[in-house]
Amino acid sequence: MCGIIGVAKKTNTEEVLGMLKRLEYRGYDSFGIATDSVFEKEVGEIKPVQNSECNMAIAHTRWATHGSVTRENAHPHSDCSNKIFLVHNGIISNYQSLKAGLKGHVFKSETDTEVIAHFFEEKLKTMDIKEAVKEFFRAAAGEFAIVLMIKGDSNLYALKRGSPLSLGVTKDGNILASDIYAFSDKTQDAIFFHEDEFAIISKAGYEFYRMYDDLEPQKKEITKVEWSGTVEKKYDHYMIKEIYEQPEAIERLQLSLQSAQKEKLENLKEMIKQSKRTVFVASGTSYHATLLGVYFLNQAGVEAHTMIASEFQNFYLVDKDTLIIAVSQSGETMDVIEALHGMKGKGAKIASFVNVPYSTIQRMSNVSVNIEAGQEICVASTKAFTNQAVGLAYLASLFNGGMDFQKVTNSIKHIISQEQKIKEIAKTLKKKEDMYIIGRGFLYPVAREVALKVKEISYIHAEGMMGGELKHGTLALIEKDTPVIALVNGKTEIVSNAMEIKARGGRIIPFTNSDTTLGDPININAEDELSFALAATVAGQLLTYHIAREKNLPIDKPRNLAKSVTVK
Ligand code: M6R
To answer: What is d(CA 237, CA 378) in angstroms, rounded to the nearest whole number?
Structure first.
């Protein structure tokens, strides 16, 4: 994971760290910066360093993979003579064998990244930078986006395989970054790196080369990026801001699906009709949205399946008649990208529902729908999940008659109006170590999603399950006052499942639209399944947020996580 920056223009450390801050969602274990005169790194979130002017800089925000969270393991890394500095996002999977070949070099960290600096130090003794880059592309296994800065040299050198990298072209110089948000306040002109590309970047210009058998010069297209909205924070946390934004995000999506993206949706419908099967691929929260997608498409008579991206190739066979729909907030999740590469190789068509425009997954797709949630900053996904689910339900509705967006937004607003009550429930849960969430049918994905939020943000172990599965084992864990959220939509089976828990001393917290004797409910005012599912999800998001507040946890940046998961 990690975020990297390379700046070839007159700048200062404050400006560079400002850009780096926008990549903090990619990891925030430690950070570092190197310029022509400054070299600073520290454990923890990005903090100001002494401000100084410079003509060139590289910077990094880390999500640790190889080597614990220490100052030594933070980037930039350098060679033995502190002449070559570099930042890296990705994993050099054969770093140990590369390291073994670098005799006499002194390593200061436990990282895979440091090996790259010594590799270049060694190669540059006998060859020029282009030859050394070719050697590196041939020798290195794994994924990398790398920016190299060499003392006394007025260029930056950028290499990409697997991990994302883009270039922002400004009138005063050029900026390399893991993603375009980093320079969104500086330019609209972006260039995206392709696989196995190398670039020489200076204040005055750029040259791109593609690694085939040799490095071949490339013509690059400049994409005019349209930025949607600014991200200000008027609330204590981005999480609550993003929860409140959900009704408005749904309205934005509705408008877009019914106008600007109408044709895209029609094409996607045709692609589904012409395929033998439709299979979703996604990770984490986005996977839960795809479970809802499967449910709604199956209801509409369309055969659909879903599989978690990291295990896709082990559990699913695809061929050229399969339509794959990738669902991802960031559009950069490595597990999804890897799965898509495998499927493209088999001739499958690729569609996607993505929140971040111009992202890798969007660019890999034959058709890509923007879910229009707006920038999501909190690591926990809230409004992106909602808009993914709405987008997929809308796709299904193209096969069986329309859908009522207004009902969905009204149900969510009704939940938000119960926040005070949810807050009181949160107080009673803050000391709990385990929680269960049960649902059936379209409420099973919601149970999974609420459980993920509870784990991620309130650090309580939580399991989201099919109500019918309890009796096959998990019931053994229910003790006096074990909290269980029951997602009750009036169907007798789930009420019976909840009663079974109650009979064993468990505490039921019903999220329901019907009268029950199960306990004091969070009232879901929903007339249809999608509205119920999303209202219950939002109730779970608010509950999680308030438990985390009670526990004084770092809500927007939970420990050990990152927003965009760009490693396998
Ligand atoms: O960007 P993506 O939607 O592909 O990310 C997938 C997961 O990493 C993500 O949904 C993760 O589970 C969230 N942090 C959950 O809130």
So the answer is: 8
Residue 2: active-site member: yes
Cα separation of 27 and 414, whole Å? 35
Query: Mutate which of 286, 287, 376 to test ligand 1's pocket (most atoms within 8 Å of Cβ)?
Result: 286
Mark 443-470 as b/e (b = at least 16 C-beta within 10 Å).
bbbbbbbbbbbbbbbbebebbbbbbeeb
Closest-CA residue to 478 (of 455, 504, 508): 504
Distance from chain centroid for Cα 331: 7
**Are domains 231-403 and 416-568 of this chain identical in fold?**
yes
Q: Return the residue matching tokens 């949630």.
A: 373
| Options 9, 203, 349, 563, the catalytic residue | 563
Ligand 1 centre distance from Cα of residue 134 (Å): 35
563 is catalytic: yes
| CATH architecture of residue range(s) 416-568 | 3-Layer(aba) Sandwich (3.40)
281 sits in which H/E element? strand 277-282
Residue 553 has pLDDT above 90, yes or no: yes
Question: What is the Cα–Cα distance from 518 to 482, expressed in whole angstroms?
Answer: 14
Ligand 1 atom at minimal distance to the Cα of residue 379: 14
Atom from ligand 1 closest to the CA of residue 282: 4
The binding-site residues of ligand 1, defined as CB within 6 angstroms of any ligand atom, are 283-286, 328-330, 333, 336, 379-381, 452, 456, 564-565
Which overall architecture, per CATH, does domain 3-224 show?
Answer: 4-Layer Sandwich (3.60)
Question: pTM for the complete prediction?
Answer: 0.84
Instruction: Note the residue count of the chain.
Output: 568
Q: Give tens-digit pLDDT for 468-511.
A: 999 999 999 999 999 999 999 988 899 999 999 999 999 999 99
Nearest to 268 by CA among 400, 363, 367: 367
231-403 falls under which CATH superfamily? Glucose-6-phosphate isomerase like protein; domain 1 (3.40.50.10490)
3-state helix, strand and coil shares in percent for the chain, rounded to the nearest 5: 40, 25, 35
Closest ligand 1 atom, CA of 283?
6
pLDDT tens, residue by residue, 129-173 = 999 999 999 999 999 999 999 999 999 999 999 899 999 999 999
